[in-house]
Amino acid sequence: MLSNIWILLATLLLILLLAGLVLVYCGVSRSKNAIMPLVSLFLLLPMTFVLWFGGFGDLVYSDLLTLVVSKELFMLFNCFFACIAIILVWGGVLERISYKGMLLFSFLWLLFVYFPVAHQVINHSGYFHGLGIIDFAGGFNVHMTSGVSALVLANCLGRRIDYFNLKNKFSQQLIFIGTILIWIGWVGFNGGSSLLLNKEGILAVQNTIIAPIFSVLTWMLIDYMYTPHKVTLINISLAVVSGLVAITPGAGLLTLWQSVLVGLMAGVICNFSARLMHKLFKVDDTLDVFSTHAIGGAIGAFMTPIFLGVSTSNNLLTTIAIFLYSGFVTYVIVKLVGLFVPLRLSKDLEEKGLDIEYHGENIINL
């Protein structure tokens, strides 16, 4: 009974996490594109729920879990993981992807990327699960798949047409509020993955709070030294997310001080990864989804077994396999979708903005 209450609470927190994500998306967009992220959540949620409860969620579920929590709650809880994953992918291509393209891409991506990987990672009969990988709360199936796919999608769509002359973001306040909601919601993401309100669950909550604090510390220090001397709110938000992602594979397994080290490492590596993506590889990954989620997830997947004193080989093999699979299948999906609907907005529509064209309103009406 207590485990069901714990999972129900965690599921409600995941709703806050989703709300936080789209608020950050709204905040980093220009005012002409700020409504679309909010509306898109309500388009992607029903699609994901229909696919999940229509049968694909059974790929993830294992009968052994009935000993711990009810199937209905477990399915609902993990359905939100799928929702989060596809929302994350879309965060790499804000302000330049069409609704039709986004919806068709999302449908195919869930079917051929997220569901197969989630089955292999979570289900007790899955190949990666059978290898004995260490992933407490979805570092592989949520963050690596979405991070790599966001990079491939952003590269295929190209940069925003005004990339070198981007105007101010719509709302720094929404970035702040959204980041806090993501942080609170992540307590459900990691804490609920214990399935029980036990020592692991409490440890996961503790580490989910601790790791981002120290990823922010190192990220800000690097920004202060290299930007130069500029510490922006959006980068603090990215630092928080990097710490949250990196601690996810070991959230309920690592000690407090180990989570501090994971956070410190995430702030350094994810920061430099984001710099390389923009400056060296010239990729317009709007919210640095690859650097924060794929790289952050890989950091956690590598550091967790080291701290636990076990071999990193299974986690390393799984990381490489998921990177390659997610990237290749996403590229195929992009090309396939392009045969039917345009993924990229027209130049005129991108210049005009999406909100008036699609919704007939602005984010602020004075």
Describe the model.
The chain has one domain: Ammonium transporter fold (Orthogonal Bundle). It is 71% helix and 0% strand. It starts with a helix and ends in a 7-residue tail after the last helix. The radius of gyration is 19 Å and the shape is globular. By secondary structure, the protein is mostly helical. The chain has 14 helices and no strands.
Summarize the structure.
By secondary structure, the chain is an all-alpha fold. The protein is built from 14 helices and no strands.
Ordered list of secondary-structure elements with their pairings:
Layout (H helix, E strand, L loop, with lengths): L1 H27 L6 H19 L17 H20 L8 H24 L4 H5 L7 H19 L14 H20 L7 H28 L6 H15 L8 H24 L9 H20 L4 H26 L8 H6 L1 H6 L7
Helix pairs in contact: 1-2, 1-3, 1-7, 2-3, 2-4, 3-4, 3-6, 4-6, 4-12, 6-11, 6-12, 7-8, 7-9, 8-9, 8-10, 9-10, 9-11, 10-11, 11-12
What is the CA-CA span between the terminal residues?
51 Å
- Number of separate helices: 14
Number of domains: 1
Largest sheet: none
Average pLDDT metric: 90
- Helix/sheet category: mainly alpha
Shape: globular
Taken in chain order, the helices and strands follow as HHHHHHHHHHHHHH
- Judging by the overall fold, what is the CATH architecture? Orthogonal Bundle
| DSSP strand content | under 5%
* Full CATH superfamily name: Ammonium transporter AmtB like domains
CATH topology: Ammonium transporter fold
